[in-house]
Amino acid sequence: MATLQDLGIAAAINIVVTFLFLLAFALLKLQPINHRVYYSKLYINGLRRVGSKGDQKSRRKFLNLDLKQLKIFMPLMLLGFMVLIPVNVTDNNLSKMSHQIYYTNVDKISIANVQSGSQRLWVHLLMTYVFTIWTCFMLYKEYKTVAEMRFEFLAAEGRRPDQFTVLVRQIPVDPDESVNVHVEHFFRVNHADFYLGHQVVYNASKLVKLVKKKESAQNWLDYFQLKYARNPSVRPSRKRGFCGLWGEVVDSINYSAEQIDQLSKEAAAERERVLGDEKAILPVAFVSFKTRWGAAVCAQTQQSKNPTLWLTDWAPEPRDVYWDNLGIPYVEQNIRRLLVTGALIALILFFIIPVTFVQSLANLDGLEKIAKFLRPITERHFVRSFLQGFLPGLVLKLFLLLLPSILMLMSKIEGHVSLSMLDKVTAAKYYYFMVINVFFASILTGAAFEQLNSFVHQSASEIPKTLGNAIPMKATFFITFIMVDGWSSIAGDILRIWPLIIYHLKCMFLVKTEKDRENAMSPGSANFDIVFPQVELYFLLGTVYAIITPFILPFIIVYFGFAYIAYRHQVINVFNPEYESAAAFWPHIHNRIVASLIFEQIALLGLFSSKRAADSTPFLIGLPVLTLAFHIYCKNRFEPAFLKYPLQEAMTKDTIDKALQPDFGIKSFLQNAYTHPIFKTEDDNEESRHLQSSEDQPTLICTTRSTHAKKVVPIIT
Amino acid sequence: MATLQDLGIAAAINIVVTFLFLLAFALLKLQPINHRVYYSKLYINGLRRVGSKGDQKSRRKFLNLDLKQLKIFMPLMLLGFMVLIPVNVTDNNLSKMSHQIYYTNVDKISIANVQSGSQRLWVHLLMTYVFTIWTCFMLYKEYKTVAEMRFEFLAAEGRRPDQFTVLVRQIPVDPDESVNVHVEHFFRVNHADFYLGHQVVYNASKLVKLVKKKESAQNWLDYFQLKYARNPSVRPSRKRGFCGLWGEVVDSINYSAEQIDQLSKEAAAERERVLGDEKAILPVAFVSFKTRWGAAVCAQTQQSKNPTLWLTDWAPEPRDVYWDNLGIPYVEQNIRRLLVTGALIALILFFIIPVTFVQSLANLDGLEKIAKFLRPITERHFVRSFLQGFLPGLVLKLFLLLLPSILMLMSKIEGHVSLSMLDKVTAAKYYYFMVINVFFASILTGAAFEQLNSFVHQSASEIPKTLGNAIPMKATFFITFIMVDGWSSIAGDILRIWPLIIYHLKCMFLVKTEKDRENAMSPGSANFDIVFPQVELYFLLGTVYAIITPFILPFIIVYFGFAYIAYRHQVINVFNPEYESAAAFWPHIHNRIVASLIFEQIALLGLFSSKRAADSTPFLIGLPVLTLAFHIYCKNRFEPAFLKYPLQEAMTKDTIDKALQPDFGIKSFLQNAYTHPIFKTEDDNEESRHLQSSEDQPTLICTTRSTHAKKVVPIIT
Predict the structure, then answer these.
(1) One-character DSSP codes across B27-54
(2) Considering A130, A209, B206, B480, which has the largest number of Cβ atoms within 10 A of its Cβ?
(3) What pLDDT score was predicted for residue A361?
(4) Do A305 and B190 touch (CB under 8 A)?
């Protein structure tokens, strides 16, 4: 086990590294060449206007999270240092047992130093209550504030297409009618007074590919023309074959121009085919209503006898739609989810193997016993400290860097239809992964290495005891982990080290035109799927160790402090949100904090029972039950605010709108809101995929056969 | 352990008893004096018309249940007898171990006779798959049929008040408006086009008491007058004091007439007070809509920002409302549920103590070892068989007879607002009780008595093994249990033995007038809360033992056969339903059958692993996962049919109604539908609690101040 000295060296290294990073940040952000990296939002805002009000709100919420966590842990740290550490230090369990196990002075100030059956454990029990009640109180207040802010935000917002629109999936096949007409008839009958119109979704994946190819060819053309203009003596040429590596030599400018021509024709033909072919229409539609009330009703009710048909949900914001997944049928989606869940479990379990190996390095004392030949190396003090304090966290971190993109891919395969949902489920996957593979694997495997004999044939009911015993032992490891993973990754985040490197590499090798330079630095959105699970993991660590080893709390508080500063800068100056979350992440965070609390209580139950403090068991069993009751209450009271739009709110906003702008043309406002972006960018002037039908039009202009041959269909009134 | 001979004697006793009961039934039902007991429905139907169509449907569904279960078990029994029993019999595990444990020939044809690690277990594995797939297939078909029948039934039904009405609870207190006006304003604003009117609910519990007292006094008066008319020489007299036992002697007829006068005045005063006092209005209302569509929308959506206010649900049928619970606030209701859950757990655990004692009697072999002095008695063959086969089940049954009323009381305390819901939750409680206290306690305690040493310090992960080992051992006990509890209780049910005795006792001692005789035989409704859990328990037994001891199946099939005959008679000739369930119980039954399947699979997993057939474990682990997937699919696909009313259905029915009866006065139809029955029976001619407000009335006649002083309030349009 690492000693306080080891920790001191590690903390010093990490603090130096962190400050170097911050210094580098201060220097780099002054260089104009890096401005695109550190102030990307300013560049973006110069180009297009981002709803700054919504930004403000979501930013404030995001930052509140960190501040609030400081709020939770600060008083606890003070209490912990004032009460628990003196209680622990003055007992002498470990010194009595020193012939049996290794211990360090970090362990000496933890609960491990309290003797079995000691009356001092009552102090810990009392502190557990204080901690639980304080956390629940803060959580309740925060949930309430966030829910109110969400409603305020939604109420203050202007008209947005998603407020009036419902995403309808699983439209059944009708042998007599096209999807287009079927949707029209269904909603005209069943939502007679509120239906405004709808937009069908085309299967445009092939068209998207063609357009992308064309854009790339266009870029090459620009590049070659620029090159030629700079140096008119040499007309650029390339080979016709794969990647220009072999084949007939041709003139580059002409070749690219030819390619563009060819691709333009193909894209146009594909457009024609998609828009003309009924089979290219997916059984999905965005149905718009005249009022928010009508949309709220449609989104919250069951439409058909078969609850797996005509599924209605709030439409995501247009920019939030993930178009590729819209067409996946219900049953397939469920099968995909089942398979992905299986794959996720396999991934989580499989990852344990390398992590186990890395963790075994973290415990040099244990390793030395097995591999004696390593002793000459590990005996050297600095090497030892370095390995103990730095290496295990770093290797683990490298593993974790690969992960988010795999998990995002899995989420995409699951078939969610909005980017926000993808972020949410990816965040959940990442969190589970980290809890199992960082937290549990570290606790159990690491400890198993020490107490292998007593651990192997453990049964389920013994798990709380096992955890309770193992957790205090791993405090040192997690302290170094917080420093390496937490502190320096935050520092790396604020430095935007990867975007910086990639941006400059791109500028050196790839950027051919000014347009390329613009594209080279995409600011990215706030990476909720990575950031939230990390914050939640540190919260879990803080919760679990708050009573057992309060010494860990200052490290976590420093982490949250750094995180607050870093993300504040990022949200204000860098990120360009892909969608407006309106605090939709909060319920997930809340749930995980409550789960952490319950986990902590169970672990303490195990620890106490192995400390032979059986008198206290009834007092501890009550806590998870009460925490669960608190959770259920919060869920019922606040969660619907994040899922449903109450009719009263909808009606109020409708009434205000009507009073302020009685003549607002809602129909033209919604006209093309949910057109696939590929059709929008291609030709804004064509009139083919307009919102179908309206009340003042007694006929329906139906464009399913062809974009040009319009068909007149009588409608039911 | 009981031998086949013991079982034979027990079966003979039980079959004789059952046939005696059936014979008695055949004789008794011919006596005209018993007609009220066996054909109560005919008497009722003579008096009032019961929706016979609805009856037919629910009856058919109810009967289907039993037939279907026969359908599930019959082929399995055949397969079990043809495949599993030969496989089991021809192995000889038990005879090898006969020096260690007691066994009988029932055990010899069970899985216990298969040697550990034998390849024969693959046959059992295969049969488990066949059984699971067959059961799931039948369940799917049945769920589909039931859901379709439910929709057909709902579609064929005539206009009913509950189709247009929503029960609104948690109406917030408004300092400026009465509940009455507040509800009116809220729904006129937020459901402007559909709101028809509403009825508030009065806290009339005191009035109900007074009216009951008055009715009793009226009955006494009738009795004394009749007595006097028959024997005019003696004018009946009684004492004024408590129960007529002491005090001044008075003339009975005058005394009763005085009492009636007094109570009439008190009741009238109380009526006046309730209807005039705003505080007597509960924050609850039945809100009616012009169309089913409007009601469906309101019932399925969230009304207000705070999801614990303005809670809307489908109103139960008027006769199904449990008025006493309407006023319970949301938070109080949740606290009540928490407390009742705690009480239920305590009840379930506490009951284990007597059951354990009774179960210990069931195992005479074990008992003899401990209490040697009993041997002379228990050695006698008939006593032994009697005790083994009859006593344990009977004592258990007596315990269980007390239970349903306690559980129903608990459910009432929980605060459910309809009788159907009360029946559902009571049935659930009763089922959990029986599973824990009959099934698990019998398996574990009985077996613990034999294998105490190996059982005491069992840990959680070992539980499947423990169950797997214990279940085959208890087959004999459950066979006798099925005979005693199942067969004869069904025979008792069809004989209506308690109602018969009570009816005749009442006729002898209590019935004073013809009206009393009518009241003496209330047919009761179908006691879903007792019948369903019983059927489910036997289904659990059948499922668990289908593979392990298929010998149990014929007993269960006989039970289901009896049950089919008995309940068929009851539903057709006896019961008078309190409400129309429209198969609303089916999802619960389905869920419990699936739970039984999963339990069986887990127990088999344990059994197989203790039989050292580890190769088969991966094949068995897949089964619960697949069964769970099946369950989730069924839940998503069919369960909403029992909870929500799809808008398409509502709209279709509205349209048909409108086409057939364009001038139907929906308002007068709904006028008094949800008036507390106490006000209805008292004075149908008063006009005070009419449905409030309508669209053709520009003013609202508000009756909150007094029944006579009408107040005119302007309304918002």
Answers:
(1) HHTTSGGGHHHHSHHHHHHHHS---HHH
(2) B480
(3) 59
(4) no
Neighbours of A103 (CB within 10 A): 19
Tell whether pTM > 0.90.
no
Q: Does A701 touch chain B (CB under 8 A)?
A: no
Residue with tokens 């683990």, as numbered in its chain: A396
Q: Are B482 and B627 in contact (CB under 8 A)?
A: no
- Total residue count of chain A as it appears in this document: 717
Half-sphere exposure of A380 (CA within 13 A, CB side): 7
Residue type, A35: H
CB of B95 within 8 Å of a chain A CB? The answer is: no
Q: Containing H/E element for B713?
A: strand B711-714
Question: Could you tell me where the beta strands, DSSP code E, fall in A76-233?
Answer: 165-169, 195-202
Rounded-to-10 torsion of CA A403, A405, A406, A409 = 160
- Of B601, B667, B554, B558, the closest CA to residue B196 belongs to B667
Average pLDDT, chain A: 72
Question: CA B43 to CA B36: how far, in whole Å?
Answer: 7
- Highest mean pLDDT among A205-209, B74-78, B101-105 belongs to A205-209
| Cα gap A36→A521, rounded to integer Å | 7
- Strand runs (DSSP E) across B468-541, as ranges? none
* % of chain B exceeding 90 in pLDDT: 1
DSSP for A201-265? EE--HHHHHHHHHHHHHHHHHHHHHHHHHH-TTS--EEESSGGGSSS-EEEHHHHHHHHHHHHHH
Instruction: Compute the distance between CA of residue B3 and CA of residue A524 in angstroms, rounded to an integer.
Output: 76
Q: Do A300 and B302 touch (CB under 8 A)?
A: yes
| d(C-alpha A239, C-alpha A249), whole Å | 4
- Tokens linked to A716: 């039911």
Percent of chain B as helix, strand, coil, to the nearest 5: 70, 5, 25
Which residues have CB under 8 Å from B115's CB, separation 6+?
B91, B92, B93, B96
- Which residues make Cβ contacts (< 8 Å) with residue A583, sequence separation at least 6? A57, A58, A61, A146, A149, A150, A153, A642
Instruction: Tell me the β-bridge partners of B86.
Output: none
Q: Using alpha carbons, list the distances in angstroms from residue A656 to A53, A290, A652, B262, B306.
A: 20, 14, 6, 58, 21
Contact criterion met (CB below 8 Å) for A57 and A582 = yes
Handedness of CA A381, A384, A388, A392 (dihedral sign): positive
What is the C-alpha to C-alpha distance for residues A658 and A656, in angstroms, rounded to an integer? 5
Tell me the per-residue pLDDT of A427-440, one tens digit each, with 9 for 90 and over. 888 888 888 777 87
Structure tokens at A193: 């007074």
What is the spatial distance between Cα A58 and Cα A578, in angstroms, rounded to a whole number? 12
Residue where the block lists tokens 């100030």 = A109
Residues of chain B neighbouring A459 (CB-CB closer than 8 A)? 459-462
B588: Cα separation from own chain's centroid: 11
Cα distance between residue A263 and residue B384, in whole Å = 93
User: For A460, which of B459, B640, B644 is closest by C-beta distance?
Assistant: B459
Q: What 3-state class would DSSP assign to B249?
A: strand
Q: Are the beta carbons of A574 and A38 closer than 8 angstroms?
A: yes
Q: How far is CA B529 from the centre of its chain?
A: 2
Residue of B297, B308, B456, B637 best to disrupt the A interface, most CBs of A under 10 A: B297
How far is A52 from A42, CA to CA, in rounded Å? 12
Place of tokens 């960190």: A66
User: CB–CB of A49/A562 below 8 Å?
Assistant: no
Beta strands in B274-368 (DSSP E): 281-289, 311-314
Instruction: Please state the ipTM of this predicted complex.
Output: 0.73
Annotate A619-645 with DSSP letters as a single string. Answer: HHHHHHHHHHHHHHHHHHHHTHHHH--
* Residues 254-293, chain B, touching A (beta carbon < 8 A): 293
